[in-house]
Amino acid sequence: MSAHKQEQEQGQKKQQQQQQQEKEKQQQQEKAKQQQQQQQQEKEKQQQQQQQQHQQEQEEQQQQEPQIF
């Protein structure tokens, strides 16, 4: 095999590896994004639950207070 052909093949392999790495990077970024979104949703859920609890507490307090007309 001529040296020239070897160089070409090595060049192609390099390109393929780089493309592979790029793909993997993108996939990792996608995963990270999805995880962040999930965490965000979890946070929002928790906040909503806290708000609901807070409302219930307020309602209970209102019921406990004697109403004066």
Automatic annotation (TrEMBL):
Species in which this protein is naturally found: Drosophila navojoa
Ranges of Basic and acidic residues composition bias in the record: 1-12
Protein name: Uncharacterized protein
Region listing for Disordered, in residue ranges: 1-26, 50-69
